[in-house]
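User: Hey, my collaborator sent me this sequence without any context and asked if I could get a structure. I don't really work with proteins. Can you help?
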Amino acid sequence: MAEPTPRRNEPRLRPAPLLFEPAQVAADPEHFFDLESIDDPRALLTRATELTQAFRAATDRAVEFQAIAAAQLADPRRFDRLTPAAIAEQAEWTEDYAKKMVEFGRDLMRGVEGPGHVDPV
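Assistant: No problem. I've predicted the 3D structure and written it out in structure-token form, which is a compact way to encode the shape of the chain:
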């Protein structure tokens, strides 16, 4: 189960770096960040865990940026603002989810993250 996203007043953990793989290696469906070449199960567990944490952290960060972008696009002060339906269509979300992401993004931009705050994901 994923750990909650660290909030602004909590330090972010630095997960293991996600290294880019050469195109020809990444094209091999059996190849995944060189994990298949690790023979020691302890080392494999350690590296796979590092990658899992890195992907979770990257996902959490990306969702926060999605929410901020959605809130900015829906800002009523913009002459070209988008409706939640338009944001949903562009991001391939449901309209209800887009509304939640807009609110989440507004909260992030205001720095509001109290006990009543609910992450939309």
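In plain terms: Helices lie at 23-26, 41-73, 84-91, 95-110. You can pass these tokens on to your collaborator as they are.
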